[in-house]
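Risk mitigation, structural track. In case the binding assays with iron/sulfur cluster fail to produce interpretable data, a predicted complex structure has been prepared as a fallback.
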Amino acid sequence: MDNPSKHVLASELSVAWSNLSALEVLESALARFGEDKMAFVSSFGAESAVLLSLAARISPDLKIIFIETGFHFDETQRYAEQLIDRLGLTRVVRVSIDPITRKRIDPDQRLHQVNPDLCCHIRKVEVLDRALKGLNGWVSGQKRYQDQMRAGVELLEFDSERDCFKVNPLAHWTAKRIEGYFQGYGLPRHPLIASGYSSIGCWPCTSPVKAGESVREGRWRGQAKTECGLHRPLRRQQGGMS
Ligand code: SF4
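Fallback model:
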């Protein structure tokens, strides 16, 4: 349900927090909305280590949601374990589609070939919807520089579809700043970066990028699709889902 006053609050706090560091934005958001009522959402992808490191610097016990689509690269699974161990994260919660829905809608697991929007919807969007129920907000690692769709990302937004706030503490960060953080904190890299991947999601829908391409150009290559729907919800436009 939409709520104009919450959109206004999000805009006001985005302005108020604009001079804060990413760590301070996170601390402010957690204080405002409640540590136990907030969750970080991570794909354990190419740049995820930065947001996870910031979370761990506040508390390794903060809740981290990892959406298990069933199509992650093996390298992503190993990297997740490496980061969890390295940062000492204690509350990484893996969430996934329920088996009955998967069997009903995608029995042969080829939906991504014929209807990737629906595949993302049942494997990511609906799963996150359920995981965020009862929470006041979530934290994402979106950055404006990543592509056109994310160019307007604010520090704090009201996610009206889920009736909760979304914090984007890295909204203003550049690729150079991300790189500087990796180096400054000695964070490990996702192993696929060395093979030319700059944004890493499910293996059927992810490819390396070439010189001159934007960071997310390897996602759903050759299709009009550029987002999975977590941030620009597709919201049941396909119909017929649980
Ligand atoms: S990224 Fe591809 S495989 Fe993963 S949920 Fe979306 S369509 Fe399915």
